[in-house]
Automatic annotation (TrEMBL):
Family: In the C-terminal section; belongs to the saccharopine dehydrogenase family.
Matching InterPro entries: AASS, AlaDH/PNT_N, AlaDH/PNT_NAD(H)-bd, NAD(P)-bd_dom_sf, Sacchrp_dh_NADP-bd
UniProt xrefs under Pfam families: AlaDh_PNT_N (PF05222), Sacchrp_dh_NADP (PF03435)
Domain of life: Eukaryota
Alanine dehydrogenase/pyridine nucleotide transhydrogenase NAD(H)-binding domain ranges (all copies): 233-438
Pathway(s) this gene product operates in, as recorded in its UniProt entry: Amino-acid degradation; L-lysine degradation via saccharopine pathway; glutaryl-CoA from L-lysine: step 2/6; Amino-acid degradation; L-lysine degradation via saccharopine pathway; glutaryl-CoA from L-lysine: step 1/6
GO biological process, one term: lysine biosynthetic process via aminoadipic acid
Chain ranges of the Alanine dehydrogenase/pyridine nucleotide transhydrogenase N-terminal domain: 54-193
UniProt protein name: Saccharopine dehydrogenase (NAD(+), L-glutamate-forming)
Keywords: Multifunctional enzyme, Oxidoreductase
Gene Ontology cellular component terms for the protein in this record: cytoplasm
CDD domains cross-referenced by the UniProt entry: LKR_SDH_like (cd12189)
GO MF term list: saccharopine dehydrogenase activity
Length: 599
């Protein structure tokens, strides 16, 4: 089997032959291959009684078919003398046991595991997702993604139960190297699945807007047996694009990838199965307007491309990591207006500037931001605005993409966000709005390969975890920084590194209390002065006039004709007709009486 790369297209009469193809091993090499032998600690080798660990059945989500370890990893462990218990589950992608007579089987029983509903014998219990409180076993070491490090409200009862049951909790998310980079993650497969899903959704959304495109031939990620099948499907769509099957009224399509980590890299591996050309941020606006329809354009946006100091100056990575509040982002004004599809894979902290705010979304989804300047006809409609779809793989509600306030799911992967109403809808047929896909367990759609990839990364630390005894003091546990630094709780209390969770939890509780105790009518009214009634004024007036904003808005304009337009948007708006260059004193008084001035 060969995978075609669209770097060269050779015309032969009416047919096109694609050359410069390469073996799948080029992208399969990204999978980590374990060595044939690895070091087994003396404590494990010489143990009188075999060390026992367990792989727990995933029960938190019906789509969760992954496991922390694949059968090949279990085989290495059992051959090293470790007793491995696996809770049976027909939902898991890797089966407990194959039917008799099946050769080359990859199942847990053949790997030496023991199928057991009762896993209380194990000192180490592993899973991918969180464990229901009622299933926690006291005095054990648990390893899973706990989603507690930001004091997430939904998982605080779980953290309380961990402390009450004297459980030592290790969180995969906090396993990092000396540079602070995560070392055990599903990120690349989140990128794979997210890119496949958004291409599928793009086809549906474009069809609803009146355009038949080859993207309709791509399914959701979970409909493919493995990534090879997905690559082939995307490549077939690439053939059609290269042959000129895209409607001209769409204009060039641009795909923007935020971040340069594993998520972005995985998404780009799928993207590169299409006929692609990469451009930098400086040239994005050119290809968005004058680019070819026989290819799609990619642009990777790093932090340095859109972040700068508020008080002037460029981007400094160390300073930004320490003080993100000192920086601003120009993504919404310099990148997003030329973006057809945004694939967002960046980590966002509360003090960091957002990529797209709510007011930004209103501007980006206005009818003036169309992708094509061609004359609109009933059968060849223009897009309502250039930004058509967003795949927020970071799945952080209210984060870098502010209007993404709720994650989608594998069985309901898409919604349409309407910036005018600030609402999300299930219908693809809305005349305006951006398609949003933000599934918080993307890799679960490709469970076989993501499990194997994750286990390959985890095997370097599995024996350290196996030697953890939750009944002994945390201070006496000797392991690498990658493991000890990921221990959130031990001996009935938070470890020193994560003691901040208690304070953060109290802060959130107090904020929630004050928010609940004060209605919007109790909030002091703020005065906002808007200078000018040009292109951006209407979205600003509409946003500030929504219910819940305690603002007194005054708009300064030279044109009396603007009055009717603004009054239709908000009858409460106050309008001052003046020439700001000739009536400086009156303008100064307005500015002095305002809490915020927008120009």
């Amino acid at each position: 089997m060969f995978v075609f790369k669209f770097s060269q297209i050779l015309k032969k009469g009416r047919r096109l032959a694609f050359v410069d193809y390469y073996s799948p091993s080029k992208w399969k090499s990204t999978l980590i291959k374990r060595p044939g032998k690895f070091v087994v600690p003396e404590e494990v080798k010489n143990a009188k009684k075999p060390y026992c660990m367990a792989i727990r059945r995933e029960t938190i989500n019906p789509w969760e078919r992954r496991a922390p370890l694949a059968p090949k990893h279990v085989k290495w462990l059992t051959r090293s003398g470790v007793k491995v218990l696996v809770q049976p589950s027909n939902r898991r992608a890797y089966p407990m046991q194959r039917h008799k007579g099946v050769q080359f089987s990859r199942d847990y029983i053949s790997a030496g595991a023991i199928s057991s509903e009762d896993i209380s014998e194990a000192s180490l219990i592993m899973s991918v997702k969180t464990v229901p409180i009622e299933d926690l076993i006291p005095d054990k070491t648990y390893v899973f993604f706990s989603h507690t490090i930001k004091a997430q409200k939904d998982n605080m009862p779980l953290l309380d139960a961990v402390l009450q049951n004297n459980i030592r909790l290790i969180d995969y998310e906090k396993m990092v190297d000396e540079k602070g980079q995560r070392i055990v993650m599903f990120g690349r497969w989140a990128g794979y699945a997210g890119m496949i899903d958004i291409l599928h959704g793009l086809g549906l959304r474009l069809l609803a807007l009146g355009h038949n495109t080859p993207f309709l031939h791509i399914g959701l990620a979970h409909s493919y047996r493995d990534s090879h099948m997905a690559h082939n499907a995307v490549r077939d769509v690439g053939y059609e694009i290269a042959l000129g099957c895209m409607p001209k009224s769409l204009g060039p399509l641009t795909f923007v990838f935020t971040g340069t980590g594993n998520v972005s890299q995985g998404a780009q591996e799928i993207f590169q199965s299409l006929p692609t050309e990469y451009v930098d941020v400086a040239n994005l606006h050119k290809v968005a307007q004058y680019g070819s329809l026989n290819k799609v354009y990619g642009c990777v946006v790093s932090r340095a491309d859109h972040l700068s100091r508020i008080n002037g100056g460029g981007f400094d990575a160390e300073e930004y990591d320490a003080h993100p509040e000192l920086y601003k982002s120009n993504f919404a004004t310099e990148v997003a207006p030329y973006t057809s599809v945004l694939i967002n894979g960046i980590y966002w902290a509360p003090k960091s500037p957002r990529l797209i705010t709510l007011p930004d979304a209103t501007v980006l989804m206005s009818t003036s931001m169309t992708s094509s300047k061609k004359v609109k006809t009933p059968g060849r409609p223009r897009l309502p605005h250039r930004l058509v779809a967003i795949c927020d793989i970071s799945a952080d509600p209210g984060g870098s993409v502010e209007f993404m306030t709720e994650c989608t799911t594998i069985d309901r992967p898409f919604c349409i966000y309407d910036a005018n109403q600030h609402k999300s809808h299930d219908s693809f047929a809305l005349p305006t709005g951006v398609l949003v896909c933000s599934i918080d367990n993307m890799p679960a759609q490709m469970p076989l390969e993501s499990t194997e990839y994750f286990g390959d990364l985890l095997m370097d630390y599995i024996f350290e975890m196996l030697l953890s005894d939750a009944t002994t003091p945390f201070e006496k546990f000797q392991a690498s920084d990658a493991v000890t630094g990921a221990i959130i709780a031990s001996n009935g209390k938070l470890t020193p590194k994560f003691a901040y969770i208690s304070d953060l939890r109290r802060q959130k509780a107090m904020a929630s209390y004050h928010k609940a105790g004060r209605s919007q009518s109790d909030l002091p009214e703020k005065s906002v002065l808007l200078l000018g009634a040009g292109f951006v004024s209407a979205p600003v007036v509409e946003y500030l006039s929504r219910a819940g904003h305690s603002t007194k808005l005054t708009v300064v304009t030279e044109k009396a004709s603007d009055i009717e337009k603004l009054i239709q948007i908000s009858p409460e708006v106050k309008i001052e007709i003046m020439n700001v260059f000739e009536e400086q004193n009156q303008l100064s008084n307005l500015i002095e009486d305002s809490d915020l001035v927008i120009r």
